[in-house]
Task: structure prediction
Amino acid sequence: MEWLQLWKFHLNPPQELPGRTPEVIERYQQHRENLASKGQTLTDFILTSVFDQEALNRGWTFVENDFPYRLAPGIQHFVFWISPQNRLSTDQKLEQLNLELIRRGYSLDRVVYYQNLPHLQSIPCIEHYQVFISS
Result:
């Protein structure tokens, strides 16, 4: 997906997922199978592996997406995960995201983020935003 296509989805999620490359799809399926063989779900994995104690205390974490969508070169894909214990309003959560992006040196005019529609969320139990940054 090109940046100009992605830009229109800022806080306005697409009706269908942008898709992943065949290589990313294969890695994602292997990851899920590996978790299942250990009796873990994707939700378990996020809560125990993506959230460290600092992130749990803060109420969120911001990480590179291990299984990014198919994007044009120069676009990075991150995920802003929100702890289930986080009781901030949506506006406050997005303010935390914006502050983190600025802290990391990103210009907000080169950032797009949205929450996937409920029927498109692979991990609906944990609130999260897809975040895209154009270099």
The first helix runs from residue 3 to 7. The mean pLDDT is 96. The CA atoms of residues 23 and 67 lie 9 Å apart. The chain has five helices and four strands.
